[in-house]
Amino acid sequence: MFDEYGIPDDADLEFAALTLETFVYCSRATDGVDDAEVNRIIEFSQRRNVARGITGVLVFGSGVFFQWIEGPPAEVQTLIASLHDDSRHYDIVPLDRSIEKRERLYLGWEMERVEADDIRSVLHEALDSAEDEHNAAALKRILAHLDSEPLAALGRG
Ligand SMILES: Cc1cc2nc3c(=O)[nH]c(=O)nc-3n(C[C@H](O)[C@H](O)[C@H](O)COP(=O)(O)O)c2cc1C
């Protein structure tokens, strides 16, 4: 009923519960990471995530990434390690991480480009509930970066 990556073979079974690890984080794009580089990340991730049974969403706007990843725990853990080694972003702030038996929230892999205001409200919520002082400090740095963006640059990705 599932293939080796935990993706249901049959579309009717797409809401079946399975053991999924979820990782949600935000980070800042390193200087020099331009649209072409973001497109390379998206193209690579698209192929790699399908092969690993990972689904989720990557949001990018005003130099800030926000990503939701869900999939088989071993695959998600491998990806988390790669993300931490990737010099194209920094100030990685884990916002949520869990392993539970549940339905997938995302059936495929999506990419969204958003405006700074959308990211700002998500980060403010995260800051309100941040318990770890390093995470709170990184969130404040990201928010300060968003606040310092010239208006003309907002939403340009
Ligand atoms: C913001 C961001 C999001 C990324 N998302 C993914 C992803 O969803 N899937 C993926 O395979 N790689 C993603 N990557 C690329 C990984 O960090 C890494 O380069 C890639 O998985 C290759 O890792 P490896 O050389 O350890 O195999 C992302 C990179 C960045 C900077």
From TrEMBL:
Identify the residues that the record assigns to the BLUF domain, covering every copy: 20-112
Pfam families found in the cross-reference section? BLUF
* Alphabetized Gene3D superfamilies for the sequence: 3.30.70.100
Q: Mind telling me which PROSITE patterns this protein's record contains?
A: BLUF (PS50925)
Source species, domain of life: Bacteria
Q: What is this protein called?
A: BLUF domain-containing protein
